[in-house]
Every structure is written in structure tokens, then in C-alpha cells.
Specification:
The structure is a single chain. With 296 residues, this protein is of the alpha/beta class. A hairpin with a 2-residue loop joins strand 9 and strand 10. Helix 3 packs antiparallel against helix 4. This is UTP--glucose-1-phosphate uridylyltransferase. Keywords: Nucleotidyltransferase, Transferase. It comes from Flavimaricola marinus.
């Protein structure tokens, strides 16, 4: 069995209820941070990491994702005929091509959990470990999946999860690693505790939405009993396989934004806006206006 990570799975079937009513018509993965949809950041991260096959686990109601992801030659031709060659070139660079890229869309028809979504990709995954990328965990800076793939051999194979230090009061929002050894930014672990109370948390190393998983994850998911909310939990299957194949975390170097929440999306937008000269002027004007004393 190869240790090369050739497949990335994008679970994008969720309903995005935190962003209703906007997500009634627009999938949350297509919500933009300034002018770039969340799914584009995830695709670019996988491309940068050298992923060969991208599998999008979607829902029949979210056909807009496939329309966005795949190249639209007719639209580009229309844009060029109107002299909009620059935007046409940008669209071509961002899109995935059905001829040149190995892209698969498969459906998760029922909301049976993240683990079930990953299992839906089983028959399409290439041999070896697989990457899982959750697009609403936006990580800016060095590509997180690429960083994880580079560290995978050092971690000893098995299951590798992305981790970050969180405040003690926030551990109950995450899965948390029980760390047994630190090797630089690689953390060997013996288990993962889901949403522990602060006093019971084995560490402050929280797991976020990037995974490089041994290919045996599919067999463990097939026999995984439903957990919280009656769903097949990916963390439960990772924990089940940890004793057999090993478990480690990587403290990634990028900056993470939880764009599955309104506050996280706003933070990401403000962060990127502050780096854009045009948007920066708007932010400066707003801050200055808000800091002026109110008129008597």
C-alpha cells in the first residue's frame, strides 16, 4: 500500500443552517470572503499540495457547487466576446477542467454525518491515505494539507489531524488530542476526546477541519455505529483505528478562521480586507468615523 496522498475528499453536502436564509439559495461553500468563495480556497489548497483526484461529496440540492467548480467554456467565450478577457482568464485558472483534472462528484442524499460523507467517497478514492478538507475551516498562509502531507511520514503514517492550541474555556467546542510525545510541530497521541469539559481535557490541542487518514478509515466507517445526533462521526472512526494504525496531530503554521459561523466569516473578511488597499481605505474610514465623538 502506498503512503502517497493522492486523493482529497471535500464534504460539501451540509445545509448551512447557520447562514439561513442566504444558504436557502446559495450553498455555504459558495459564500465569498471578499470575492473568493470558500470552496475555491479549499481547491487551491489541494492543488498546491499536488492532489491528483478531488472528490466532492455533495447533495442533490446543491448543484450550484458543481457549476461553480467546473470550467464553463461558454461563459468564458461570452466574456471574451465582450472584451472581458482578464476575468475570463481568471475564471479558467480557478476552475477545474473535466478533460485535464481528475474530479468526481458523488451524492450524500441524507444528512448522516461527516463520517458518512467520507464513506460516500470510498469507491472513488485512489489507493493509499486520503486527505479530507472541510471548506468552512478557512486556513490562510501556508497550505495546511500540503504541510500535513509533508509531515505524514514523520508522524509515522496512520491518521494525522490538524491541530491548534485553544484557550482552556474553548476545548469543549472541539475534539482534543491526548498527546503522548511532541516532535517539533508533530504530536503523537494515544486518543482523541470529543468536546471535553475544560477540567477533563487531556490537552489544549484542538482538532480542526483537515485530516490525512490511513486508507483503513473506510473499513472503520463501514462498521461505525451512529454516535451523537444519530450520525456516523468521523472522529469516532479515527479513534477506533488509532490503536491499530496510530494517531498524530500537526500544529499547522497558517491562520485558521471558522467560516462555519457568522463571527468567523466576518473575522476572515476583515482580515483579508485589511490587506486590500481598496478595502483598507473603507475600513480606515469606518474606524475613523466610529472613533469620532458624537455630535452634541
Amino acid at each position: 500500500m502506498t503512503n502517497t496522498v493522492r486523493t482529497a475528499i471535500f464534504p460539501v453536502a451540509g445545509l448551512g443552517t447557520r447562514f439561513l436564509p442566504a444558504t436557502k439559495a446559495t450553498p455555504k461553500e459558495l459564500l465569498p470572503v471578499i470575492d473568493t468563495p470558500l470552496i475555491q480556497y479549499a481547491i487551491d489548497e489541494a492543488r498546491e499540495a499536488g492532489i491528483e483526484r478531488m472528490i466532492f461529496v455533495s447533495h442533490p440540492s446543491k448543484s450550484a457547487i458543481e457549476r461553480y467548480v467546473m470550467d464553463d467554456a461558454k461563459l468564458r467565450a461570452d466574456l471574451r466576446s465582450r472584451g472581458k478577457t482578464e476575468i475570463a482568464a481568471e475564471l479558467e485558472d480557478a476552475a477545474l477542467c473535466p478533460k485535464n483534472d481528475d474530479v468526481i462528484f458523488t451524492m450524500q442524499n441524507e444528512p448522516l454525518g461527516l463520517g458518512h460523507a467520507v464513506l460516500c467517497a470510498k469507491e472513488y478514492a485512489l489507493a493509499g491515505p486520503v486527505a479530507v478538507i472541510l471548506p468552512d475551516d478557512l486556513i490562510l498562509g501556508k497550505g495546511c494539507i500540503g504541510e500535513m502531507i509533508d509531515a505524514y511520514a514523520q508522524a509515522g503514517g496512520g491518521h494525522l489531524v490538524a491541530t491548534m492550541k485553544v484557550a482552556p474555556e474553548d476545548v469543549q467546542k472541539y475534539g482534543v488530542l491526548s498527546v503522548t510525545e511532541e516532535l517539533g510541530n508533530v504530536l503523537r497521541a494515544d486518543r482523541m476526546v470529543e468536546k471535553p469539559e475544560p477540567a477533563e481535557a487531556p490537552s489544549r490541542d484542538a482538532v480542526i477541519g483537515r485530516y490525512v487518514l490511513d486508507g483503513s478509515i473506510f473499513q472503520d466507517l463501514e462498521t461505525q455505529a451512529p454516535g451523537a445526533l444519530g450520525e456516523i462521526q468521523l472522529t469516532d472512526a479515527i479513534a477506533k483505528g488509532a490503536e491499530r494504525v496510530g494517531l498524530a496531530g500537526l500544529r499547522f503554521s497558517g491562520q485558521r478562521f471558522d467560516c462555519g459561523s457568522k463571527a468567523g466569516m466576518l473575522k476572515a473578511t476583515l482580515h483579508l480586507a485589511s490587506q486590500d488597499p481598496e478595502c483598507g481605505d473603507v475600513l480606515d474610514a469606518y474606524v475613523n468615523a466610529m472613533s469620532r465623538p458624537a455630535a452634541a
